[in-house]
Specification:
3 domains; DNA Primase, Chain A; Dna Topoisomerase Vi A Subunit, Chain: A, domain 2; 29% helix; globular; five-stranded antiparallel sheet; single chain; alpha+beta
Length: 319
């Protein structure tokens, strides 16, 4: 009979602030349900940039950027340990009795079983952009690699239920307003790990720009690097009613939704509530979305990069 630590039981019984306290990390400040720390997973964090939501047991490190739950923190804090060793380490540090966390897997007769139709995933690693060449190639192919720096993270998932149980996959993602993860892969697979929500980027409190998805926002940021507007990324056009309610206090509103039926309907719905809202889709007229336009633009080349120019310069100096 094999014994395993139940990760879900660990999540339910261990408070992340308590684990941090036992590891010697105290919050620098507290605001509402948010605790701010000097990062325990990075050196040289002079201003507290590691945030913990005590009510959800979620963390986020703005210096990576990246975050997750109790288990993902353990995986990041002890990178040299296996997944099971991380669970065991958390249990030992918090001095929890094994009887509350361990379940036994008893041998049983095999029986025919239908595969579960619903896939379920868990996050097991978050990394800054740059360690996965496939994701780098993907973002560069979408022409948003530079704009993605500091905004997206590499996300690694494990399928824990369904026909693909045991399979691993990776993609890029960011957290939404509920500190849950919005993820997409190079194969255009999209997933929200947790509660669906919008992703927010604070800026000018009087101006807001809205986008359907991450690639459109990053494309706009590539073309408008100095713009200081606040940004709402819906992460799904189905969030349009939520976006309408969330942006009520902004004086100037601009929608950059897709030039398809769903995007046009969303713009009409938004302008029905806010008649002065600007329809920004004219910026990529003739294309489905902002990223499609960006990808269609020719690569800019400096004069000396043109064929033969560099050799001509060299020949001049040889004379």
């Amino acid at each position: 009979m094999n014994h395993y630590i139940d990760a879900n039981a660990l999540r339910e019984q261990v408070s992340l602030p308590e684990l941090l306290r036992r590891l010697g990390h105290q919050p620098v400040s507290k605001s509402g349900g948010e605790l701010k720390y000097h990062s325990p997973i990075r050196n040289g964090d002079r201003s507290p940039s590691f945030t913990v939501r005590a009510d959800t047991n979620q963390w986020y490190d703005f210096g990576l950027p990246g975050g997750g739950d109790l288990i993902s923190f353990g995986v990041t804090y002890w990178p040299g340990l296996s997944f099971y060793q991380v669970l065991k380490k958390i249990q030992e540090v918090c001095d929890l009795p094994e009887s509350k966390l361990i379940f036994a897997e008893r041998p049983r007769e095999p029986r025919p079983r239908k595969a579960e139709k619903v896939q379920s995933y868990e996050l097991f690693c978050i990394r800054p952009l740059g360690s996965n060449p496939l994701l780098e190639e993907y973002l560069k192919s979408r022409k948003v690699w530079e704009a993605a720096q500091g905004r997206l993270s590499e996300i690694y998932l494990r399928c824990i239920a369904g026909p693909r149980a045991g399979k691993k996959l990776f993609g890029v993602g960011w957290q939404n307003e509920y500190m849950d993860w919005e993820i997409r892969t190079a194969a255009q697979w999209k997933h929200c790990l947790g509660q669906k929500g919008m992703s927010l980027f604070k800026g000018d409190p009087n101006q807001v720009v809205l986008f359907e998805g991450m690639m459109d926002y990053l494309s706009w940021a590539t073309k408008n690097p100095g713009d200081k507007s606040s940004v709402y990324v819906l992460n799904s056009i189905a969030m349009i009613e939520h976006a309408i309610n969330a942006t009520a206090d902004f004086e100037q509103k601009t929608c950059f939704f897709d030039n398809d039926e769903a995007g046009r309907k969303a713009t009409v719905s938004f302008q029905a509530v806010y008649p002065d809202a600007i329809d920004g889709a004219s910026a990529y007229q003739g294309y489905e979305d902002y990223n499609a336009m960006l990808m269609d633009e020719p690569e800019l080349r400096m004069p000396w990069e043109e064929e033969g120019v560099f050799q001509k310069i060299l020949n001049t100096y040889k004379r």
